[in-house]
Amino acid sequence: MLCVLVLFIFIIPYSVQISPACSNNFISLGRKCYFFGNNEETWMNAHHECVEKNSSLATLINPHQHNLIKKYVNAKFSQERVERWIGGRFNEKQRIWVWGDSGKPIKYKSFGNEEINDNFKLQCLVMDQNQNNNWSIQNCLAKRRYICQTNFKNSKPRKGRRSKYDVPAPLTKITVPKNVNITKHKKNVNYACPPNMYLIGKKCYFFGDEQITWREAYYACQENNTNLAVIKNKKHDFKIREFLSDGFIEDSDRWLGGIYDYGRKKWKWPNGNTLTYTGFARIGLRNKNTRFSTIFMDRKLQYRWNIDNKMKKKGYICQTNAKEVVVVGNLTTQRKHVKKPDAVVVIKDTNVDNNTID
């Protein structure tokens, strides 16, 4: 009898395994968790998408980390030829490439066929499948896919342990009744902004480049459910000055919300509140008539405050409160029939000041 040995070959597709190390459709590569966004966004909007997921745009600090992502992309997205935002951007003031989440200079670089020089204003980095997943330079306002990165939820992987591509159970988004108590920790709180706005501290900002009068700027902000910026303390002032000096947006004088009440001889915000903090440059108020004056951030004075007639035309800064995004590992409630999902995302809108203008 002739025995025929039939060899069955089973082709096992590239799979993703479950692991508690990462959350919300993130996968583990090495010692980090990554999310590969399929929607196309500008660099800044991609940044906010990552922030909403309790992460940041990917920061690739060494070739080992970069190669892990390359291998995953080549295996998972082999039929695609797309570009994905990572966290690198060009700091026009310092003339160097930096990581956007920290501002630290980029030391490890993996550019493809790019001509590298020191003039890349408003340029950001992508990982480019057309160049073997090396880096390419794109205008930050272009829309691309993106890669988010965060640390493991609980602990670091053991040394020598092989990393897996994990996807845990998805987060559940629920509306929490008023009589339900939620136990939350400050470290799990993040803040998110609407599209085209920048998150600075716990506020969202829009930097208008159009040159308009103070009153026109006021109404331009109101039309978008925001207000001309109100700066309440030195720390707040410093953060905005630092951001403006960083060279990521157009260099321009910009209106704030401050206006001079000539009758009461006081500076006030549009809602009528008197200024409790002022960031005027020492030379800003010298020999100037305060009548019909409003406050702007002066690019010639390192964005310290100055005053000018409100009919002059300048750029402007709109402001609103950021949305509070709270990720809670366990839901603690007094109502027994409320189920406890693996994780809960609670999004709460903070109140926006209703500013008025005379």
Automatic annotation (TrEMBL):
Residues 1-17 form the signal peptide. Keywords: Signal. Residues 29-149, 200-319 form the C-type lectin domain. CDD domains: CLECT (cd00037). It comes from Brassicogethes aeneus (Rape pollen beetle). This is C-type lectin domain-containing protein. InterPro entries: C-type_lectin-like (IPR001304), C-type_lectin-like/link_sf (IPR016186), C-type_lectin/matrix_domain (IPR050828), CTDL_fold (IPR016187). Pfam families: Lectin_C.
